[in-house]
Design a protein that fits this description.
The N and C termini lie far apart (170 Å). Among the domains are: 52-128, Arc Repressor Mutant, subunit A, CATH 1.10.10; 137-207. It is mainly alpha-helical and 276 residues long. The strands form two sheets. A three-stranded antiparallel β-sheet has the order 3-5-4. A two-stranded antiparallel ribbon has the order 1-2. Helix content is 46%, strand content 8%. The protein has eleven helices and five strands; from the N terminus they run ααααααββαβααββαα. The longest helix has 30 residues, at 49-78.
Length: 276
């Protein structure tokens, strides 16, 4: 009995001296045991968020460069500086020489050529393209006269300011030769030619009646219809009317019936009769 107890105590001392090693868990087991890792959705491989942000930022930067160029070219034209510039001169004047090669190539190949406000007059040289070709007050007055004669109406003040260098000075010099009308829906000014030959005095009573007539929401057809119901006929064209020519009816052609030749009729003079 004492021998068994001594062996047991010796085994315990030996077991305490030996180091114990625990088996490590595999990565798959740790992932499976963690609920947060299993519930976390994996990002799709086809979408690169960082790439999308860089593309959007690059596009915004490029169009910002283009907007600055168009604004500068417009200001040059309004100041009377109309000689063409190269892309390097444009970037220099707009303080954008630090743009990359891709952005510069995009401006040359696509942006400046397709922009309606920029015109390439020579290969690699650009100017501002205004809505109208105006050089001085005489050209502006001529344009307004042509619009008045052709019934095209007026010209927006914004278009004149873009097209005519030093437009404010020219408009001031024209004086009462032009008229200004403010559109009610957008408050934009429109320029008209003041044809003094059409000026006549209208009685104040007629002016009051004209201004008191409400025609909001009515077109020309409705106004003409209302006047006809009241016994007032609208003015019609008094010029010579062209009578439309009635096309002559062509006779129906009968189909040509070709006569078929009878037997031996075309060689009747050659035939001979032989009697037995």
């Amino acid at each position: 009995m004492d021998a068994l107890i001594r062996e047991r105590e010796a085994f315990k001392r030996k077991a305490m001296v030996l180091p114990s090693v625990e088996a490590k868990k595999s990565k798959s087991d740790s992932v499976r045991s963690t609920p947060s890792a299993a519930a976390r959705p994996s990002a799709p491989k086809g979408i690169d968020v960082s790439n999308y942000k860089s593309m959007a930022g690059a596009s915004a930067f490029k169009f910002g460069v283009l907007a600055k160029i168009v604004k500068h070219m417009r200001t040059r034209h309004q100041d009377g500086d109309v000689h063409p510039l190269t892309i390097e001169e444009i970037l220099d004047e707009t303080c954008q020489l630090d743009v990359g090669i891709r952005t510069k190539q995009w401006l040359i190949d696509e942006a400046l050529k397709s922009n309606p406000k920029i015109e390439e007059v020579e290969p690699g040289r650009y100017i501002f393209k205004p809505p109208y070709t105006l050089k001085d007050k005489k050209s502006l007055l001529k344009l307004l006269k042509n619009h008045d004669l052709k019934g095209l109406g007026g010209i927006l003040m914004d278009d004149v300011m873009e097209s005519l260098p030093r437009a404010e000075k020219c408009i001031k010099q024209l004086g009462d030769e032009i008229l200004f009308v403010t559109r009610p829906h957008d408050k934009k000014k429109v320029l008209f030619y003041n044809d003094k030959s059409c000026q006549f005095k209208v009685d104040e009573d007629f002016q009051k009646l004209w201004r008191a007539a409400a025609v909001d929401g009515m077109d020309d057809e409705k106004i003409e219809e209302y006047l006809q119901k009241q016994g007032i006929t609208s003015m019609q064209k008094q010029g010579p009317t062209k009578v439309a020519k009635i096309p002559k009816r062509r006779g129906v052609r009968k189909p040509n019936k070709q006569k078929k030749p009878k037997d031996n009729e075309h060689v009747s003079e050659v035939l001979k009769f032989y009697d037995n």
